[in-house]
Amino acid sequence: MVRQIAEPRHQNVRKIIMLKCSPIKFLTSLLLIVICSQASAAKLAIVIDDFGYRAKEDNQILAMPAAISIAILPNSPHGIEVATQAYQQGRDILIHMPMKPLSKQPLEKDTLTPSMSAEDVDRIIKNAISRVPHAKGMNNHMGSEMTSSLSGMRNVMRSLSQSNLFFLDSVTIGNTQAQNAAKEFGVPSTKRNIFIDNHQSEEETRAQLNKAISYARKHGSAVAIGHPHPSTVRALQKFIPLIPADVELVPVSTLVNNQPTTTEPRKPLRMQPEGMKPAKPESQTPVQLDTKPVEPIKPTEPAISEPTAPESGINQPEQPVEIGVCDIEVPQTRLQGIEFLMSVVEAIYQDKTLQPLLSEKKSS
Domains of the chain by range and CATH? Predict the structure, then answer.
């Protein structure tokens, strides 16, 4: 059995692998995993902000595939009606939370600011949740001043951690602190990669959508944000039927990363000789659920019992062998097909903890 922990693509990562097979079977299984991951489609999430004001354009967006997510302004006149319709479609709904920008612009009612107390931020967010039923997450409307304030975003994430909502950072400023604060409070989060309609032009929007396709192919996924402008609606109507087969349109919630508040120490990589079955755990401590939303609880690995003294005339299985953590450095450049497979195999064979085991297997 090979267990692979998901990590960002094309970065230096440490992978912990539980082995119950020979090194040859392990390498074969790893190659199959790599092949499957290479063959999987890139994922593209499209989120349309500012819902709740433009009935015509809102309805045109709602006529598009349910994989397109929508973000509703909490004090908009049609917010509840739109949320109800989107929920019936099975569509992802976000609260498009007004946050204070650095520029001087007219502000929505109940715009969050860095100077607000934690109690005021929590009250406003809870009111917004009541106005946007069925919401799964929240993203920021404007907010360059608010999202660049770590103390302000801590107040936001403290409230969201009690409401089981994820946060999508619209990234309206480069030094945003949203995801840093989300990690502190265990709030699942992700961020926008492409804006599709900074310029209200159908041609420009289609160009940005194609850029989102390229980004998703390169990085495995992309989050694109737009608005219900007439030009954006026309561009989407023409673009969606032409999405390439190697790119999958997905709800934004599928690209959200869970942020655990605490991390447990990683267990060393263990190899168990073939034919030895792990013993059933004697007891398991009941899991205490926290009030904060955390990543789903993973089932614990069955405990491996210590072998007892061999009885006369009976061959006892060998003890599991501790061989440590296998470091695999994934190249920064994008490799495909056999080049990627060979780079992974070469990294495994060069790992100092695995070399003695592989040499022993060859000699036997």
Answer: 42-257 (3.20.20.370)
Cβ–Cβ < 8 Å for 146, 173: no
User: How far apart are alpha carbons 82 and 79 in whole angstroms?
Assistant: 5
**CA 329, 330, 331, 332 torsion: positive or negative?**
negative
Q: What would you measure as the largest C-alpha separation in the chain, in angstroms?
A: 86
Residue closest to 138 by CA, chosen among 46, 77, 47? 47
Length in residues, the chain: 364
Q: What is the pLDDT of residue 41?
A: 87
**Per-residue pLDDT, 258:** 65
Place of tokens 């990589």: 269
Query: How far, in Å, are 70, 173, 196, 197 from residue 191 at the CA level?
Result: 15, 12, 14, 17
The whole-number pLDDT of residue 358 equals 60
User: For 100-201, where are the E strands, in sequence order?
Assistant: 137-142, 166-169, 189-191, 194-195
Yes or no: say if 209 and 224 are a contact pair by the CB < 8 Å rule: yes
Rounded CA-CA distance 163/258 in Å is 15
List the one residue out of 206, 204, 165, 160 whose CA is nearest residue 185. Answer: 160
Give the count of beta carbons closer than 10 Å to the beta carbon of residue 231: 18
* Alpha-carbon separation of residue 318 from 182, 309, 321 (angstroms): 46, 11, 9
- One-letter amino acid for residue 259 of the chain: Q
Note the pLDDT of residue 351. Answer: 65
Beta carbons of 92 and 137 less than 8 angstroms apart: yes
261 contacts 295 by C-beta, under 8 angstroms: no
Q: From the first residue on, what is the mean pLDDT of each consecutive set of 10 residues in the chain (364 residues)? A: 45 44 59 54 97 97 98 98 98 98 94 98 98 98 98 98 97 98 98 97 98 98 98 98 97 84 38 42 40 37 35 44 47 50 66 63 54
The per-residue pLDDT for range 67-93, each reduced to its tens digit, is 999 999 999 999 999 999 999 999 999
Of 22, 17, 26, residue with least CA distance to 345: 26
The CA-atom distances, in angstroms, between 263 and each of 12, 43, 306 are: 19, 28, 27
C-alpha–C-alpha distance, residues 57 and 308, integer Å: 72
